[in-house]
Specification:
mainly beta; ten-stranded antiparallel sheet
Length: 177
Amino acid sequence: MMKKFAKILGIGVLTIGALTACSETDVETGGSNNTEGKKTEQTQESKKDDGKKFNAGITQEVNGLKINIAEVKITDKQIQVGLNVENTTQQKMTFYPDQGNAIVGDMQLTANMFSGSGNVSGDINGGVKMDGVVAYDAPEGKTIDVNKVTEIKLDMGDVFNDETMDAKNATIAVPVK
């Protein structure tokens, strides 16, 4: 019985360690709680320029939630989107951008809840600002041609007002710079 418990505990620790290791991003969120500063100097030096990074500078308000797309990084396997959100209302909003999609040409990338960082998902109370990075993975066996991407369409799901029960879809087109 004790061996079985130790084995389960060991697997749990390994799983948590693996999930934690996957959550490093190097994209600015543009928010005041910028979660970007979690990389080490060694990671910075050992990573070669494997993609394209640019500041999108797009702000769109959806159902009282101000969504600001800050820095975007495109690699052959993933798109990382740094964003910050602000609930401009006094009602609670619910928003799950880390369960959405990014569309590039005829390819749909799915958000990976474990590869992002920060906190931009879930309930957002009135007047609250949050920031983080949402990562979208290329479908298995496919790669993104970084140099041919001219626009990223972010389908981030609905912004739901808990009080009025009103939901509006947050779809944002990001031109690649």
